[in-house]
Request: fold
Amino acid sequence: MKKKYKKVYSLAHQAGYRNYTVRDLVDLKGRKKLTQINVITPEEAAAAELADIDLLITGADRLKEIREAAPNTFLTCGIKYTEHESKESIARKCFELIELGVDSIHTNSWNLNFIKYISEFNIPLQGHVGFVPMKSTWTGGVKPVGKTLKEAIKVYEDIIELENIGCWAVEVECIPADILAEISKITKMLTISIGSGSKSDVQFLFAEDILGYHNDSSKTPRHAKKYRNFDKIYQDIQKERIKAFKKYQTDVEFKKFPAKKHSVLADQKELMKFKKLITDWNNGNK
Amino acid sequence: MHKKYKRVFSINNDLGYRNYTVRDIIELKGKRKLTQVRVTTPQEASAAEEAGIDLLLTGPGPEFSKIRKAAAKTFMTVGVPFIQNPSKRDATKKAFEIIEAGADSLMCQNWNLDWMAHLSKFRIPFQSHVGFIPRRTTWIGGIRSFGKTAEEALELFKDIKDIENTGAWGIEVELVPQNILAELTKITSLVTISIGSGNAADAQFLFAEDILGQSKIQFPRHAKKYSNFDKILQNLQRERVSAFKEFKSEVKRNKFPTKKHSILLEKKELLNFKKFLKTKKASN
Reply:
């Protein structure tokens, strides 16, 4: 199925093409299951657009390159709450990201008053509930949230709060599949599942989990699926780099590189003249 | 040949290991041909160190500290762009910052000679650049070799002498006739580093991206490809696309996520939650 991009104005009033507007996504709730991927490099972003992934999410660090690499895919960008001590500061950051071409902002762990304030500008917002890594000390560490009625009610209330503020979507992380199935039915927001089963409007994964590579020591989470082994592929590529550099080192050592075809020569006549000029220069300097 | 690293103090006073000190490099002039590679990523840097490349060159960008860590034991020179440092004081300040980040030497490309001499007063090792210098090509009429006539060669000689007098240890010589650089190498105390200037220099220099075959621009005539990374990276990108397509197709056909990727709930808890939702609905 060939995706048709539609002509749109971005939030920064730039004319361009996108796979969806926010309105399209809201209208698709309950009709079509969508995919979202977190990308951190332009290569991942470009690959995701080519693979017709519906939604992308990324951080602010490499936003410009990532937007350029996937210019036609609905792109959400996260803002870390610890970098903005006031709603004015967070608004300024939102405006900056919007100018770089984002279609929506992810409000991971923000103060609810800040979310309300940004919503007043009609900026499309995606929230986050359930297991929220930066807030997980409140839910008892790295573990599912919502297995008891009390916890499930809290997730429900968090979602209703975001809905009332006007968020268009909510990432729901590591809650029981059955709970999300119920909640998806009653909220107007699109639910985005990661580790919360298949009954959501959108399925979300990290590109690094799909590709199977990890910086640092983190491992593929239980709820993710590895579709490739990029750790191994990167190791092989690094071996190829080492091999190429070794060949170069040996070539230089054994005078195989550079060869004549890599060099230029001065005419014999000019060379002799140059040697004489140097001799004169040396004599003049004595 | 296994490279032996020696214990050193870096110029920012960090104790560590290096393949060479600047003194070693100067003493090897005329005795042993060295290699230098310009790297732009930590992967290239660590591969170069593992391959036993003698000298590395890189830029001062945000990647530098990662590159230094990736090749912690190789003599590393870092470019200090003059255009972002509009005074001797600014350039010196930037040089100090790069030294603090772990550089063994600086590349003073296009620098004012006076600034280089100033840097020398701090005993900071640096190399410079003559011949074809990309930013200065408007003075020589565009992209071409430099030094084919005796007059141009003399000009080169004088440039090298000037740089020698500032206290540099090395000089990159770009696109100069091989036989001219052979003469220059004999008469300068600087370690000459050839790129496109033939094989008679003290060190041979290439860009990692040319060695690997992933040049973004037209491949230079003087470089040699030792691998085909353009192709390798294209294949890698194809793998990314196909992995993402598989993910999408599995989500669409409800094959992912499955039970083993999900958290299950006791029937009792689910019924309680449904009851709660019903009372909510009734109260609205």
User: Anything to note?
Assistant: The radius of gyration of chain B is 27 Å. The mean pLDDT of chain B is 94. Chain B is about 40% helix and 15% strand.
